[in-house]
Amino acid sequence: MDNSFSGISAGLLFATKETSVIVFFSFLVAIIFTKTYKVLNPKSISLFGISFLLISVLFYSSFFSYPKGIIDSVLTFKNYFIKSSVNTEHVQPWFYYFKLLSYNSLNNFAISEAVILLLGFVGIIFSFIKIQIIRKIFYLNFFPFLQLSGL
Description:
Elements (H helix, E strand, L loop, with lengths): L1 H15 L3 H14 L8 H19 L7 H18 L10 H7 L1 E3 L2 E3 L2 H15 L3 H18 L2
Helix pairs in contact: 1-3
């Protein structure tokens, strides 16, 4: 039953988010690195696939009133592959978005998301630390603060 709900969620994600391929790739990488694929069985994979396809077909065909939408949902990726081979839109250096997050000014008004950037880096570091007690201490001490601050 859980796999059909996962398939429904994935189908809704695919039907509503243009960038769902990035999320699906992230899921695939996570499944590989966590070795979750070892516990998957054919029944769970088929439940996931059927529910994913059903939701995708329902939404892209506008509930079976526009069948060409199903084909268009797949052909739309052709545009992304063409855009990815031509580098005209993304010409910023790799650190550009880090610079935007750390400090930026707009009409003499300073904008900074440095706290979020810092906490993101702290999260990355803690995700690689194997010692559970350090994670527990960090989350017990800082999680209530983050909830109260609205971050």
